[in-house]
């Protein structure tokens, strides 16, 4: 045993495994031997063998917490986040549970988009390690992602008091932006970038904030200057600048920037070039995608983009072959399901119509009037007033579906405004009736029905004349929504502002037009599966279009 441990510590993994294999057979009832054998399997990349041995060690000696932690690390690295949580539930419930288990659980909850559980795990670490800046930073980041910007600001400032880290300035900047404190947010983002030259995440957020606040494109682009940056950093910043130019409405110029200055072989820059070229040269887009795949063969973002590129290049069979593998790994990813539907529709596969059964799956109902209001129209008026005040920016963000409008930055479920807080009550009845009307079934929507639901995000969009949403889906949802509150006057028979379904959000040949439309009505909530491509028709008349939306996931 001591010899095997020494070999593992010396990274002589094959020798350790050869020594441990007969020991594990001879001492199959000894937890320490099975644990060490599992560690050897893990070091050699044998996940199945490692899991077998580590679970055996845990069964033989339930108090062997090191085996739990090692297996949890392996499960997290393999993307098996739900299994990680289940494995560590008992250990995390112990009064003297180690901080490491909560760190692993927090990372798993983050991957599962279970932000409240992530915050709870980070709080346990802070309690176990009081006064340390890294746990406080991590808690601040979790709070910010969960929408609790006020406490995130407090924790970030406290962490900065102990250690002046650029990552914490970024967390602070994002939290301040969520609170609508845009001057302070900009200062914090600049502080992050100053402390780490070439800090891509901070510079991206800073350029975006300048753009959304109404600054001209040149000012926002100037933030992304690449003088003196390492080639890899320069490539990432160039990709951000290209996305910014695209956001301003000129995808051709955005691609020209990357074609002129190059991608440096960086996977992210190649993906950006592929995304931009897909609109006008799907063959060249596929070339960029293959370069990204060569640079990052195991990156899920590269895999997803390659599926899109195969579809855009009129290669649905190749796309579906990739999708078969991807969906096995990420069965609940609604974006992958949406891409699969495109492939089926292009090939005339009858499964496309079953997946996009608009009569069964698209529902529209008026909000319930919440307590505190006697008429729904009065509630809608008060809600619209509150939401208009929450729109403090002037332009749309990067990498979102809206064009010519704004999106709220705060997590609205945390709002203190009475009308906004009452919205979750106004939608509860319509959501439950929609789920009940679905009935039982084995399809992708009905089989996820649970006893309850929870909201995954709540935001508002305000579109100006000419504004619209490009076709998109919600990868992390189950059921998605659009609730119209204020609508511009339109001529009878005009479909400006209508919600459309079934037009893919990527260019394909032949083009696939929208198949279903819903006329917007003030106070009406439209619910539909998150995998359905949906968009809005641009409206040309004066006035604005105010909506509030959310995703629903099973609880």
Structural overview:
By secondary structure, the chain is an alpha+beta fold. Among the domains are: 2-78, Tetratricopeptide repeat domain (Serine Threonine Protein Phosphatase 5, Tetratricopeptide repeat, Alpha Horseshoe); 359-554, q2cbj1_9rhob like domain (Jelly Rolls), CATH 2.60.120. Helices cover 56% and strands 11% of the residues. The strands form two sheets. The chain has a six-stranded antiparallel sheet. The protein has a three-stranded antiparallel sheet with strand order 6-5-8, with no helix packed on it. Helix 6 (81-92) packs antiparallel against helix 7 and helix 18 packs antiparallel against helix 19 (300-312). The protein is globular. It starts with a helix and ends with a strand. The mean pLDDT is 96.
The name of the CATH superfamily of the domain at 359-554 reads q2cbj1_9rhob like domain
- Integer average pLDDT: 96
The tally of strands reads: 9
Instruction: Give the neighbour order of strands across the main sheet.
Output: 1-7-4-9-3-2
**CATH architecture classification name of the domain at 359-554:** Sandwich
CATH topology description of the domain at 359-554: Jelly Rolls
Intertermini distance: 46 Å
Please state the overall shape, judged from the principal axes of the Cα atoms: globular
Main beta sheet strand tally, sense and closure: 6 strands, antiparallel
CATH C-level of the domain at 359-554: Mainly Beta
Low-confidence stretches: none
Q: Give the % helix.
A: 55-70%
Number of helices, where a helix is a run of at least 4 consecutive DSSP H or I residues? 25
Radius of gyration: 26 Å
InterPro entries: CHP02466, TPR-like_helical_dom_sf, TPR_rpt
TPR repeats: 166-199
Pfam families: 2OG-FeII_Oxy_5, TPR_14
Protein name: Tetratricopeptide repeat protein
């Amino acid at each position: 045993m001591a010899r095997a441990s020494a070999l593992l510590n010396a990274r002589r993994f094959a020798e350790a495994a050869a020594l441990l294999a007969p020991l594990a057979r001879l001492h199959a009832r000894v937890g320490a031997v099975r644990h060490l054998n599992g560690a050897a399997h893990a070091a050699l990349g044998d996940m199945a063998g490692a899991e077998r041995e580590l679970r055996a060690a845990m069964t033989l000696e339930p108090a062997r917490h090191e085996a739990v932690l090692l297996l949890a690390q392996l499960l997290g690295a393999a993307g098996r986040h739900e299994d990680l949580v289940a494995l560590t539930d008992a250990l995390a419930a112990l009064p003297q549970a180690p901080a490491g288990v909560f760190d692993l659980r927090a990372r798993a909850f983050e991957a599962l988009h279970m932000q409240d559980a992530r915050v709870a795990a980070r709080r346990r670490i802070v309690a176990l390690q009081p006064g340390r800046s890294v746990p406080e930073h991590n808690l601040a980041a979790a709070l910010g992602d969960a929408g609790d910007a006020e406490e995130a600001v407090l924790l970030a400032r406290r962490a900065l008091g102990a250690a002046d880290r650029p990552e914490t300035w970024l967390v602070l900047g994002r939290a301040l932006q969520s609170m609508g404190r845009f001057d302070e947010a900009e200062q914090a983002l600049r502080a992050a970038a100053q402390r780490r030259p070439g800090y891509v995440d901070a510079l991206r957020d800073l350029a975006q904030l300048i753009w959304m606040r109404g600054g001209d494109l040149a000012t926002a682009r100037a933030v992304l200057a690449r003088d003196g940056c390492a080639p890899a950093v320069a490539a990432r910043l160039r990709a951000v600048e290209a996305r910014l130019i695209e956001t301003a409405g000129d995808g051709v110029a955005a691609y020209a920037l990357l074609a002129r200055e190059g991608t440096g072989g960086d996977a992210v820059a190649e993906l950006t070039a592929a995304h931009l070229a897909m609109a006008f040269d799907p063959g060249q887009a596929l070339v960029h995608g293959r370069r990204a795949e060569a640079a990052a063969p195991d990156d899920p973002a590269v895999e997803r983009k390659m599926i899109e590129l195969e579809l855009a290049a009129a290669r649905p069979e190749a796309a579906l072959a990739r999708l078969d593998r991807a969906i096995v790994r990420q069965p609940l990813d609604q974006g992958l399901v949406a891409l699969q539907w495109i492939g089926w529709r292009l090939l005339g596969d009858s499964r496309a119509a079953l997946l996009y059964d608009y009569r069964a799956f698209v529902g529209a109902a008026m909000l319930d009037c919440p307590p505190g209001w006697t008429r729904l129209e009065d509630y809608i008026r008060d809600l619209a007033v509150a939401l208009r005040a929450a729109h403090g920016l002037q332009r749309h963000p990067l990498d979102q579906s809206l064009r010519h409008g704004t999106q709220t930055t705060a997590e609205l479920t945390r709002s203190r405004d009475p009308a906004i807080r009452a919205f979750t009550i106004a939608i509860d009845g319509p959501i439950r009736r929609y789920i009940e009307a679905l009935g039982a079934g084995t399809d992708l929507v009905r089989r996820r029905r649970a006893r309850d639901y929870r909201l995954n995000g709540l935001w508002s969009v305000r579109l100006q004349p000419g504004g619209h949403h490009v076709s998109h889906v919600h990868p992390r949802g189950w059921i998605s929504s659009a609730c119209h509150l204020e609508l511009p006057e339109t001529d009878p028979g005009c479909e400006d502002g209508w919600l459309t379904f079934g037009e893919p959000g990527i260019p394909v040949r032949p083009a696939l037009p929208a198949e279903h439309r819903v006329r917007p009505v003030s106070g009406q909530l439209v619910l539909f599966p998150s995998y359905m491509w949906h968009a809005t028709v641009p409206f040309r008349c004066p006035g604005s279009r105010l909506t509030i939306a959310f995703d629903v996931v099973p609880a």
